[in-house]
Input
Amino acid sequence: MWGVLLDVGGVFLVPSRGRLVQELGDLVGDRDDALFDRAHFHGMHALDEANVTGNEDWRVYLHAYLSSLGVPEDRLEQAIDALAPLWRGPSVDLWRRILSESTAGLRALSDADLRLGIVSNSDGRVEEELIRGKICQVGAGHGVPVLTVIDSTVVGVAKPDPAIFRFALPALGLDPSDVVYVGDSVKYDVRSAEAAGMTAVHFDPFGVCDGQDHSHVASVGEVLLHV
Output
């Protein structure tokens, strides 16, 4: 029996194009949803490559995010500053776009009788967001049933500290070696899952990461190839 734990931001939810256009207007308004989706993964790749943590990491992310959308270099800092209140606010105000293919992939994992759970760095609202988006919930509901939803703010431990996974593994009833973790960051997801003794899979649907020392999937459904 295998289990799969998944991140939320960057796997099921990405920043809403509409909210960003509200803040930046014509600077990014002519780009479509696919370009905004891809921009998230450029932002995460920049974070993985940068030697920063804490309060500076969101600026690194936004610099790469906005650059990938074609924002001119001389407008980047102004645009980043304009987005600061949104980025520091409640996640539910920003992380609104659902990656529907990921939700379908989660259903495929459930249909394969895998033991499923969520482990996310969030602000205490991740379970609310998953239910609202009809993505998943513990037990019966409109989304895919999972065994546990772990929010870093709720449990007081955040990735890359591998201790966060200790809150999820008992619900799966499996050894770490029988669990796959899926996330969109090498630094925060892949390395912490490896440190916890799990198999780590990097969710990278646009092929932005060229790392050769870990596995990649372009869709959640592809995780079936790793169990």
The two ends are 9 Å apart (CA to CA). The mean pLDDT is 95. The longest strand covers residues 115-120.
